[in-house]
Design goal:
Layout: E1 6-10, H1 15-26, E2 30-35, H2 38-50, E3 55-59, H3 65-79, E4 84-87, H4 102-130, E5 133-138, H5 151-175, E6 177-184, H6 201-209, H7 215-226, E7 236-239
Length: about 250
């Protein structure tokens, strides 16, 4: 059903983005992968090509609107269509608010919220014009449940969840653009590497002891959503490790 469609995946240099690119490519999707680490994109591109997939890779900083627009334009020039957008790029430098890590707040707002807005803005006119498309936004269980040291991160993921529902209401019925919010619990990725608050070291270590989700588990959920029949709009997938309580 999704064979020969075109997908843009942000934050594709590792973790969920990388797994999603490989998974969609195996399903016959032409994948356009973007991230700041071009060397990692090049490695991933070679892997996808070796397995018979089609890929385009390009440096992408989602906090820069011009780069988002240029990325979408390059994909349209190469393949003539954008059918799926996976807004995966995200940061999670958790910290207690009292520690006033303002630079980290700004980074999360820029990547987790503005990046989603910019990338969606770069494809929405095209999808609206052709009256088809699928936008997948990576929110989080933190977009439903607030926890200590996560107030700012949770705020960004609550924003993604709200934005996703707003997109559904605006575009699904009128323009046949399906919209999905993917909400993972703890996943074994590089996400916790950005935590600089030393008081959270135990939290990070406890997370590593848990039998966490793997990036592939989330990629499988994304594949399920985008490969559903056209009349099915999978709006939300909340997916936790079995051993995660909250």
């Amino acid at each position: 059903m999704i064979n020969d469609k075109v997908a843009i995946i942000t934050g594709a240099s590792s973790g969920i983005g990388e797994a999603t690119a490989i998974t969609l490519a195996k399903a016959g999707v032409k994948v356009a992968i973007g991230a700041r680490r071009v060397d990692r994109l090049e490695e991933l591109s070679k892997k996808i090509i070796a397995e018979g997939g089609e890929v385009h890779f390009q440096k992408l900083d989602v906090t820069k609107r011009e780069e988002c627009d240029n990325f979408a334009k390059a994909v349209l020039e190469k393949w003539g269509s954008i059918d799926i957008l996976v807004n995966n790029a995200g940061l999670m430098p958790l910290s207690f608010f009292k520690n006033l890590k303002v630079d980290e707040w700004d980074q999360m707002i820029d990547v987790n919220i503005k990046g989603v807005l910019y990338c969606t803005g770069s494809v929405i006119s095209h999808m609206k014009e052709k009256k088809s498309g699928h936008i997948v936004n990576l929110s989080s269980v933190a977009g439903r449940v607030v926890f200590p040291a996560g107030s700012v991160y949770c705020a960004t993921k609550f924003a993604v969840a709200a934005f996703t529902e707003g997109l559904r209401q605006e575009f699904s019925v009128r323009s046949n653009i399906r919209v999905t919010s993917i909400e993972p619990g703890i996943v074994a990725t590089e996400l916790t590497d950005t935590i600089t608050d030393e008081s959270l070291q135990q939290f990070v270590e406890n997370g590593k002891k848990m039998e966490t989700l793997q990036a592939q588990d989330i990629a499988n959920a994304i594949l399920y959503a985008v490969d559903s029949p056209p009349h099915v709009n999978v709006n939300e997938i909340l997916i936790r490790p079995t051993t995660q309580e909250k």
